[in-house]
């Protein structure tokens, strides 16, 4: 049995065409079914639905043989025990710094004052500001980061940006792009040895179906 860990939403939707290219059809729709283990047309392949941030953990400890996770999630997890053979180029976006439109970010950074930064992505934020030599107080949040500068909780946020609509709707401006983000295939290293043939076939099929 091959177990693939996916998160609902963007990653699940964008992985379906890659699975199809490998001859795999998922038989349930996660938007209408409450099942967490989804069968496929291949009796020896199943999909498990987990939270996006849990995908690397499932694959690391062998709860799944492989999975699809964003670069952001992989950096925050650390990537221990994971083989990362492919950038699937799906669920693309960027990690950015954003502030209130009336906040002078360049001046704040130049003055060497401490910046209060709210984010879910603490490793990425800490590394980014350390590289710039900017001292920060990091405030860990789990969602609705846009609220932090609006309520005075923080000066800046580090968050994923795709169209920029969420920032605009909340009167925030993107002042720095930290890195491009897309989703990667991650594979359990022990499974790669024990189930070499079927996993290789799947990885090769994914590789030839990556959008250009
Ligand atoms: P947008 O309004 O299109 O810029 O999207 C920004 C919102 O969607 C933010 O709340 C992000 O956390 C989320 N988002 C955008 N792209 C992604 C992605 N590829 N993966 C996960 N979350 C995303």
UniProtKB/TrEMBL annotation:
SUBUNIT field: Heteromultimer composed of HisG and HisZ subunits.
CDD domains, per the entry: PBP2_HisGs
Occurrences of domain ATP phosphoribosyltransferase catalytic (ranges): 51-206
Biological process per Gene Ontology, one example term: L-histidine biosynthetic process
Function field: Catalyzes the condensation of ATP and 5-phosphoribose 1-diphosphate to form N'-(5'-phosphoribosyl)-ATP (PR-ATP). Has a crucial role in the pathway because the rate of histidine biosynthesis seems to be controlled primarily by regulation of HisG enzymatic activity.
Cross-referenced PROSITE patterns: ATP_P_PHORIBOSYLTR (PS01316)
UniProt-recorded name of the protein: ATP phosphoribosyltransferase
Note on domains (UniProt): Lacks the C-terminal regulatory region which is replaced by HisZ.
Gene3D superfamilies: Periplasmic binding protein-like II
Superkingdom, natural source: Bacteria
Pathway: Amino-acid biosynthesis; L-histidine biosynthesis; L-histidine from 5-phospho-alpha-D-ribose 1-diphosphate: step 1/9
Organism: Roseateles toxinivorans
Catalytic activity: 1-(5-phospho-beta-D-ribosyl)-ATP + diphosphate = 5-phospho-alpha-D-ribose 1-diphosphate + ATP
Principal location class: cytoplasm
Presence of the UniProt keyword RNA-binding in the record: no
Gene: hisG
EC id: 2.4.2.17
Keywords for this protein: Amino-acid biosynthesis, ATP-binding, Cytoplasm, Glycosyltransferase, Histidine biosynthesis, Nucleotide-binding, Transferase
InterPro entries: ATP_PRibTrfase_cat, ATP_PRibTrfase_CS, ATP_PRibTrfase_HisG, ATP_PRibTrfase_HisG_short
Family membership: Belongs to the ATP phosphoribosyltransferase family. Short subfamily.
């Amino acid at each position: 049995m091959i177990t693939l860990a996916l998160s609902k939403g963007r990653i699940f939707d964008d992985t379906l065409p890659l699975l199809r290219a490998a001859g795999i059809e998922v038989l349930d729709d996660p938007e209408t079914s409450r099942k967490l283990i989804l069968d496929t047309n291949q009796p020896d392949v199943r999909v498990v639905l987990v939270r996006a941030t849990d995908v690397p953990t499932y694959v690391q400890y062998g709860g799944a043989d492989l999975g699809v996770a964003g670069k952001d999630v992989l950096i925050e997890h650390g990537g221990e025990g994971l083989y990362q053979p492919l950038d699937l180029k799906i669920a693309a976006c960027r990690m950015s710094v954003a502030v209130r439109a009336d906040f002078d970010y360049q001046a704040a950074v130049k003055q060497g004052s401490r910046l209060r930064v709210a984010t879910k992505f603490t490793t990425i934020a800490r590394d980014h500001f350390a590289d710039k030599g900017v001292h920060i107080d990091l405030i860990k949040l789990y969602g609705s980061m846009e609220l932090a500068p609006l309520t005075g909780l923080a000066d800046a946020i580090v968050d994923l940006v795709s169209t920029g609509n969420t920032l605009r709707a909340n009167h925030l401006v993107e002042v720095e792009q930290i890195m491009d983000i897309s989703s990667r295939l991650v594979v359990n290293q022990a499974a790669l040895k024990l189930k070499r043939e079927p996993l290789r076939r799947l990885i090769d099929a994914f590789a030839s179906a990556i959008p250009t």
